[in-house]
Amino acid sequence: MKRPKRCRFEPDELSELDAVVSELVRVRAQVNALQARETQLIHGAAQIAGAVESRGEASSRAAELPHREVAAEVGAALRISDRTAQRLMGESNTLIQKFPATFAAFAAGVITRTHANVVADAGAHLPDAAARAAYEATVLPVAE
Question: What pTM value is reported for the model?
Answer without folding.
Answer: 0.84
